[in-house]
Amino acid sequence: DISVRQGVTMKEILVLLCLVSGSLGRHLYGWNVEDKCDAGKEQNRIAGQKARLEDLQNSLAGFKEDLQSRITKGKAYEEDLNKLRRRLSKLEPSGCDDATQLQCGGKKPLCLSRLLVCDGSVDCDSGLDEKDCDALTPSGSVWIGTFVYDKCTQRRPEKIRLSIENYKVIDYLRSFPEVTASLEFDPGMVDRDDTILSLTGHMDLMPGDHVLRFAPPESDGLAFICTFDGEHDDYCLGKIVREDETDVCAEFVLQRS
């Protein structure tokens, strides 16, 4: 059949033309069609590897971010658990005279003299006696107090300013540093009382329960105490009390400015 023979002949001619053009390109111009094809395949392979590498790097970055987030959450949960443990321990009897002794806790509970707290030598197996010795009210620090209620003071201030003049650790009594301060009433207010009281007292370095105590500065016998909760170093809960500390007649929140 002439048409079939012509069709076959055309296909053969096309194949021959491709072969001839490739051969001429190699000999006359240095072309190498196979090399170009191989080079294209190599580029595609490299591009694919780069894409996979980028995917792996992104996955690794995501894994690191997720891991860091989990670690942060774990530390937060651990801190919350420790806070809860401290609160529960305060509610339970320590088995010691808390006014003069510290319960070391741990596997070997021990009632340690409060005079040995923060003396620079670890006496509790748990190390509790030397863990909480930072100066929370250092010299030069200023604290602003806002009253919750006041049933007894002469001036009935809304706010007070406590300026720590000196925080001094005594070598022979390191668990009760001496503190001197000045107290102003309603600072910044037009009709405020200009009286500035001088306060003398000490910081009781009870681990987890630091208490700032000032003796009565006036003849009314009202003393000033402020208790830190062991978790926040920038504020304490204050009370105005009679000298025996049994009659609380005013409360305030004192925060470092």
From TrEMBL:
Pfam families: Eryth_link_C (PF16915), Ldl_recept_a (PF00057). SMART domains: LDLa (SM00192). It comes from the Eukaryota. Keywords: Coiled coil, Disulfide bond, Signal. Disulfide bonds join 118-133. Residues 39-66 form a coiled coil. Residues 137-256 form the Annelid erythrocruorin linker subunit C-terminal domain. Residues 1-25 form the signal peptide. This is Hemoglobin linker chain. It comes from Thelepus crispus.
